[in-house]
Amino acid sequence: MAHSNTRQPILTFDWATAETLAMLDIKPFGVTLLKGYNTWTSGELIPVGTIDLGLTPMPNLELMSHIEPSLILVNNVRLSQALARIAPTENVSLFPITGAPWTATLDFTMALAERLSLQEVAQRFIDESERQLSRLSYRLPDNQKPIIIAQFRDERHVWIYGQNSLLQGVLDQLGLTNAWDKPTSHAGVSVVSIDELPTIEGQLVIMRSPLYISTISDRLNHSELWQNLLSLRNSSTVYIPVDYWPLGGLPSAMRFAEALVEVLEDT
């Protein structure tokens, strides 16, 4: 049964919420910075026809008023207060993650489903996700080393995903060890100079993010420093394709799991 055609418009400023709504067959009518999200996810997780509401801190209020939404879901208390003049507004966010990341992801999914009376739909996706993660775990090498998940911020710095990240939840379900145990931000990442990478034990997994593909990769290929740093590492470096948002919800988590296992089983 398709719910998306029978409900009044829902707008969201949060990408994790947007992709979770789509998973539950509730098409988000509008999403902020939609073009950026689609660049990360290849435009495959949120249905075609969703409206871009503009920048998150400065959305198109006139457009939002014209849509006459039934609900606005945001991840910022200040925004929720300002937008309440347009429609009922609620503050929802997966981050910061407290406790076990996988449990937090499922709780976030179910809380959103309960708000929309779609608990059974959510539970079906949760059950299938856990079955798929179990299947994926059997494809991993028996001698798999701890891993470091890195995303380039610029050509001299990376974000490394830590213990309170969405991606950590996936590692836990796959039985993998995260080699990074340093303090992280509310989003679960640490900013690290590339000079430090040779000193971190474990297999380095580099995300082929939109920025990496468009700019960073070419610069690194011509960087003597980067080539020297790679040669100093005791473990191999692999590159993981990106068709997910690393700060997303269950849909992105599952896409990350598939991509990660595929690159690790081939090393």
From TrEMBL:
Pfam families: Peripla_BP_2. One of its GO terms (cellular component) is outer membrane-bounded periplasmic space. Its main location: other. InterPro entries: ABC_transptr_periplasmic_BD (IPR002491), Bact_iron-sidero_bind (IPR051313). SUPFAM superfamilies: Helical backbone' metal receptor. One of its GO terms (biological process) is iron coordination entity transport. Keywords: Ion transport, Iron, Iron transport, Signal, Transport. Residues 9-267 form the Fe/B12 periplasmic-binding domain. It is found in: Cell envelope. Belongs to the bacterial solute-binding protein 8 family. This is Iron(3+)-hydroxamate-binding protein fhuD.
